[in-house]
Amino acid sequence: MPISLCKHSFPVTPPRGSMNHPGDCRGCDITYGQARAASRPARRRTTARKPRPAA
After folding, report:
1. pTM for the model
2. Contact between residue 13 and residue 32 where contact means Cβ atoms under 8 Å apart
3. For residue 34, with 0-12 CB atoms within 10 Å meaning exposed, 13-18 middle and 19 or more buried, which class applies?
4. Cα gap 25→16, rounded to integer Å
5. C-alpha 24: how far from its chain's center?
6. What is the rounded distance in angstroms from the CA atom of residue 46 to the CA atom of residue 51?
């Protein structure tokens, strides 16, 4: 995904969106979900798995 210089603006009033499901950005048409995923770092597992007992 290319870097966007848009200051995202997601409409939250009908007919283009709502508080639960914001509409696409007015400047670049990226969806709210795509913008949210791009702004969050990937999750990493923080706890180690417990070793299995020998059978």
Report:
1. 0.60
2. no
3. middle
4. 10
5. 13
6. 16
Peptide linkage before 41 cis (omega within 30 of 0): no
Amino acid 55: pLDDT: 66
pLDDT in single tens digits along all 55 residues of the chain: 566 688 888 898 888 888 899 999 998 989 999 988 888 776 666 666 777 787 6
DSSP helix/strand/coil, 51 = coil
Q: Supply the pLDDT for residue 22.
A: 92
3-state SS class at 30? coil
Evaluated on CA atoms 46, 44, 10, 4, the torsion sign reads positive
